[in-house]
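ok trying again, last paste got cut off:
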Amino acid sequence: MSIQTKLLSLGMKKRGKPLSATKIIAAAFAVIILLGTALLMLPAASRSGSSCGFLPALFTATSATCVTGLTPFDTWTQWSGLGQTVLLCLIEIGGLGFMSAATLVVFVLRRRIGLRQRLVMAQALSLNEIDGVVRLQKTVLVGSLSMEALGAAILTLRFWPAYGFPRALRWGVFHSVSAFCNAGFDIFGVLNPGSSLMEFQSDPVVLLTISALVVIGGLGFLVWEEIGTHRFAFRKYSVYAKLVLVTTGCLLLAGWGLTLLLEWNNPRTLGSMTLGDKLLNGFFQSVTLRTAGFAAMDQGSLTDAGKAVSMGLMLIGGSSGSTAGGLKTVTFVVLLLFIRSRARGRSTVCAFKRTIPQSQVLDAMTIAAIMILLGFLGGAFVSATSGVSFTDALFEAISALGTVGLTAGITGSLTVPSQILIILYMYFGRVGVLTISLGFLMGDRAEERFQYAQTSLLIG
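nice, full thing came through this time. structure:
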């Protein structure tokens, strides 16, 4: 039975109104953000021993919970061990979803999961059905924690010889969770404040490990389950899983190739590197644009064409039901398939010998239009209120909306109005695209009582 039918039947039994799981998720994220803000405002959370204030704490808590990575200051320089622990918890909850954390508690206590909980879990995982949602949630928890543990072990072993075991373990755990959740927060500021992963430009173990965590986290929980069930039998995968894997691979290759092409001779990015480092950092740049937010080279020094490509890839983001944000890969490919279909004079959109419902094509167009419009309006607002170039402002707005976390170096200089807008964009990018847009696209599809007479327009 579909979620809509379940919601309607459940709602009719109680006060005659449908239960809105989307509102529960949106409210829960808001509560988590406010709780994180209160904890980060504590003097003990700051390295200086003084409270950072409400707005910086709210900005950082929103960025962590919405797994974005934008921050007005360097994470290690600003936050003490307590503050970094709070950030790590917010990243984990935000990346895997608050329902994953709640479900873990239920599993531990061996409590029964009711219908309402299953509905919210399904919405949080971007599912249309509640059948098998508990099993999928278990897969999400076990798979996520296992991948994070493996990533942490590899990074710890890599850092241990140079930095000692305690720091290596702390770095390994923090950056494994941050990478898998596509958050982009780092605590390498002790080496060079604000440098993100630039100190490891020539370290393939660090960059490739983080790249693998980012990609796996961004594929989506449904795709994991299909890979686990069918292994590498690609023909047995669903159309959705096939589209996710093919689109992700194509975007990674396209981003890698375009980055190398546009930045190869740029002395401020790839120009001064060796051949091997150019290939490595070009690939990492393509991966981090999947909404990861780590930077192995200065984003503000990218060429204008490089920034344009980066903004396009940031806007697309990862896949539905994953730790990544953005427009989503399947939404993007559905738009491409629609354009291709219309260019050939066809009225249907097909993929892998299956027809995509017209309603889903319209949903993809609606979400894309909203994201693009918000991106340009946000860029104009930030440019006007913070006195920065439109290109850098647009880069910042799209990064927030796609929950990416990359910046052209203007986050720390944003004015209060711009900071508030970026906070709203980060929240909408994580919660809005995940639940609010699904709410109005999957909600009331009642038949219209009447229609106006048709008219013809000149299009094009």
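cool. Residues 1-16 have pLDDT under 50 and may be disordered. The radius of gyration is 22 Å.
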